[in-house]
Amino acid sequence: MSRWTPESRAAAVDAVFDAAPVMPVLAIEHLADALPLCRALVDAGLPVLEVTLRTPVALEAIALIARELPQAVVGAGTVLGAADLDAVTFAGARFAIAPGATPALYAAAERAPIPFIPAVASASEIMHGLDHGHRRFKFFPAVPAGGIAALKAFGGPFPQVRFCPTGGIDAASAPGFLALANVGTVGGSWMVPADHLRACDWPAIAALAATAAHLRKPREST
């Protein structure tokens, strides 16, 4: 039996979406970077962090952040299967995000103790997610999949759905996405440029994060 209802699942994801206007998407290559990087982001006003499972130290980084930085809302991205979902839950992730969705992942999400956010890129995929009791989705890849125009179009037939658009969004385009009524937060990595990360320039990253933390604008109708 599922531990989730559509209402409880939406409420759990809304708590993640509403904590900050921007969710940094992080590929942590070196475990030693995890705490100073995430502390810089959290202290600057971006407490919700997506640590992608794209590096060998990702699970260790999630566990370290969950243990040592409790003020962070650390989640796992690039969750591709049930085994990934189990692993990130054990590591201490507070939510999980996928770049798409499969029947196996939807089934695993039913029993998972943490909220799962599947990704969609079309109306049919949204309808499939709704059939599985999901009302909150990652919209990915956001810009190639139609960007703001697509999200506005989705607002008509799917008024109960909210999104975290991710993919191709930067500081200049983020406010336009955040102005939409059906956008809860946006995902991106522009506040963690590769050169800043290589240089361990945490103050520079914190400055970019602080700007991102103030991006939210008044909502417009979809």
Annotation keywords:
single chain; 3-stranded parallel β-sheet; 9 strands; globular
Question: How is the topology of this model organized?
Answer:
Layout lengths: L5 H12 L4 E5 L4 H13 L4 E5 L5 H11 L4 E5 L4 H10 L4 E2 L5 H9 L4 E2 L1 E2 L2 H9 L4 E4 L7 H9 L6 E4 L8 H5 L7 E3 L5 H5 L3 H12 L9
Parallel strand pairs: 1-2, 1-9, 2-3, 4-5, 6-7, 7-8
Helix pairs in contact: 2-3, 2-10, 3-4
Give a written overview of the molecule.
This protein is an alpha/beta fold and 222 residues long. Helix 2 crosses helix 3, helix 2 crosses helix 10 and helix 3 packs parallel to helix 4. The longest helix is centred in the N-terminal third of the chain and has 13 residues.
Beta-strand portion reads 5-15%
Strand/helix succession: HEHEHEHEHEEHEHEHEHH
Rg, rounded, reads 16 Å
- Kindly state the mean pLDDT as a whole number? 96
Q: How many β strands by DSSP? A: 9
Please give the alpha-carbon distance between the first and last residues. Answer: 36 Å
Tally of helical runs: 10
Can you give the helix content as a percent range?
Answer: 40-55%
Q: What is the general shape?
A: globular
The biggest sheet, with number of strands, parallel, antiparallel or mixed sense and barrel status, is: 4 strands, parallel
The spatial strand order of the largest sheet comes to 3-2-1-9
Residue runs with pLDDT of under 50 for 5 or more positions: none
